[in-house]
Amino acid sequence: MIISGHSRRYQINFLSDITENPGIIRYGLIIIYWLIWIDDQILSGVSYIRENLNVRE
Predict the structure, then answer these.
(1) This model's pTM is above 0.70
(2) Which residues contact 8 (CB under 8 A, 6 or more apart)?
């Protein structure tokens, strides 16, 4: 219950930040960069798995 209350309060603060704070653009860029990094990690992991499978065959 406490955790959900905190997250709800955080969401409200986040929405007010979007409307009032131009710094939200920075948060957006950080999130986009993080998603690209995660995607990069997944792709390198997939290629690593493929290389290992090819070696076994």
Answers:
(1) no
(2) none
